[in-house]
Amino acid sequence: MPAIVWKGFISFGLVSFPVRLLSAARAESVHFHMLHKKDMSRVKEVWYCAEENKPIDRSDIVKGYEIAKNKYVVVEDGELKQVAPATATTMEILQFVGSEEVDPIFFETSYYVAAEEKTAKPYALLVAALSDTKQDAIAKVAMHNREHIVLIRPSSGGLILHTLYYSDELHKANRSEAPKVKYTAKELELAKSLIKHLAAPFKPDQFEDTYRQNVERLIKQKQKGQEISIVAQPRKAPVIDLMEALKRSLQGAPAKAASKSPRAKKTAGRRTAA
To answer: What is the CATH number of the domain that holds 99?
Structure first.
């Protein structure tokens, strides 16, 4: 049974209903253990007291907020629960926005919103209303020791929740803009042609983590005492002749299957009928 990340109510207007948040995704990678190089034994994490110069148990650790150099205010977990806002148990919808209004740069983590069976009608009603109006909900919820601004949207008959970064959490100073340089109309036309040539519906199942596959293959080869398969890295150089690079890109781009094009389907249909 999947772990429940948060449990409480969604509230909009005078309507409220219980929901559960379940993790929607988790990054997968090859996990390595840290080993002592000398004897290949596992290395354990040790909590260490610098003042007493000795390791301590986790039960002896408390949370402390530094107010001055080497001066702390100790805060207990129970005290944090006592000051938790109302959004710790009730996710109140603050407003609705167009389904494409929020820039994806604000998206942080995704969750499935699960309904409780006994009160499924308000859940289903919200899904239908959001879908028909092409609107998403903006709400607040407190979990993981912070209050999140979240976006709730309909998807495949259910609701998905995305925690959002606050505006001041975006590293705006790192943002770069397109250089102000001139390009010709022909170059723009070729670039647009290349985009159209490579345009296709997004099918996430088509993509795989090649790096993870290569690491797993490396481990198997070392386990069997085989020679490691070295992956050649492409050599890239700055583009000198942009027009020539665009033309060669179009020539080398994989052709689309005729069946994917509605126009091709109609043409094929007419030929068959003839």
So the answer is: 2.40.290.10
Q: Are 61 and 47 in contact (CB under 8 A)?
A: yes
Q: Do 93 and 146 sit in the same domain of this protein?
A: yes
Structural domain harbouring 91: 4-26+82-172
> From CA 246, how far away is CA 251, in angstroms rounded?
9
Residues 48, 54 contacting (CB under 8 angstroms)? yes
The whole-angstrom separation of Cα 130 and Cα 214 is: 43
What does the DSSP assignment read for 111-147?
EEEEEPGGGHHHHHHHHHHHHHHTEEEEEEEEETTEE
CA gap 125, 118 in Å, rounded: 14
224-251 pLDDT, tens digit per residue, is: 999 999 988 888 777 767 888 888 888 8
Residue 177 lies in a domain: no
Q: 162-215: per-residue pLDDT in tens?
A: 999 999 999 988 988 888 888 899 999 999 999 998 899 999 899 898 989 999
Does 131 fall in a domain? yes
Question: Which pTM does this prediction carry?
Answer: 0.77
Phi, psi of 36 (to 5 degrees): -75, 115
Identify whether the C-beta of residue 87 lies closer than 8 Å to the C-beta of residue 140.
yes
- Exposed e or buried b per residue across 139-161, where buried means at least 16 C-beta atoms within 10 angstroms of its C-beta: bbbbbeeeebbbbbbbeeeebbb
Chain-centre distance for alpha carbon 82: 31
Report the alpha-carbon distance of residue 113 to residue 111 in Å, rounded: 6
Kindly state whether residues 221 and 150 are assigned to the same domain.
no
